[in-house]
Amino acid sequence: MSTSPSEVPSMSNDYPPAPWALRGQMYFSVWMVPAERLQVRLDPAFELFTIAGRACVAACFVDYQEGSVLTYGELFGAVSVRTRGSHHHGLTVTHMWVDSERAMRGGHALWGMPKQMARFELDHQPPGGSVFSGTGWDPRGGELARVRFQPLAGLPRSVRIPLGLPNLQMLRGRVHAPKAAIRFSPRLLRGAEWSIPTDSPLASLGIVGARPWLSGQVRDFEWNLPAATPVD
């Protein structure tokens, strides 16, 4: 069986070099969580960023589809932070799972992402009028999270907007961020039904049983993701 060019390992490693061309669908929810509910451990370079005592928490399923340098599924959780002693604010990914070992190793090396392996079921046309359903399991079969979304409203697919992602991660002992915008057609979702077991690592984000403040789809995204660079 022949191997496509995007699947050929580089000479120095077994994951594609940056930048990564990524295409697909992203489904997310955002919560404003009282700070005392969070049990997550942050790197000492970060401190929790709150507004009126609440932190912004996001959870997201991503399907990197045909046209991407690697095709794989992903689940992650993130929380709002600021770097100590500076003005930099953003989201840091505290938990992330993928179903591709090459994506896992590339995420570690290029962006400092805490990727672990998992198994997913992602359905973009589930029954009952939903627009997406997703479930993730860790390698031992423990459920990480499941969700189902209903459509609400969105711009036509032909309307696309660029958006910079305020991601801050630790890499080689320094705070790094990727400098790239993701282009997509935005779509609001409703009726987000997240089920997160109390023994899931995502429970440390304080969102078990909580209703999201906002849910949406980053529809048909296009993202040329360079290697992360240190923030000033």
Protein described:
About 5% of the residues lie in helices and about 50% in strands. The protein is mostly beta strands and about 230 residues long. It has a single domain, classed as Acetoacetate decarboxylase-like. The longest helix has 11 residues. It is globular and about 50 Å long. It starts with 19 loop residues before the first strand and ends with a strand.
Instruction: Please identify which CATH superfamily we are dealing with.
Output: Acetoacetate decarboxylase-like
Strand content: over 45%
Largest sheet: 13 strands, mixed
Give the C-alpha Rg: 17 Å
CATH architecture, by name, is Beta Barrel
- Percent in helix: under 10%
Gap between N and C termini? 47 Å
Number of helices: 1
Task: Detail the poorly predicted runs.
Answer: 1-12
Structural class: mainly beta
Order of helices and strands: EEEEEEHEEEEEEEEEE
Structure summary:
The protein has 232 residues and is mostly beta strands. The protein has one helix at 101-111; strands at residues 20-34, 46-48, 50-51, 54-64, 72-83, 89-98, 115-117, 119-123, 132-137, 143-154, 161-164, 169-171, 174-177, 181-190, 214-225, 229-230.
Write the layout of secondary structure elements.
Layout: E1 20-34, E2 46-48, E3 50-51, E4 54-64, E5 72-83, E6 89-98, H1 101-111, E7 115-117, E8 119-123, E9 132-137, E10 143-154, E11 161-164, E12 169-171, E13 174-177, E14 181-190, E15 214-225, E16 229-230
Parallel strand pairs: 6-7
Antiparallel strand pairs: 1-4, 1-15, 2-5, 3-4, 4-5, 5-6, 8-9, 9-10, 10-14, 11-14, 12-13, 13-16, 14-15
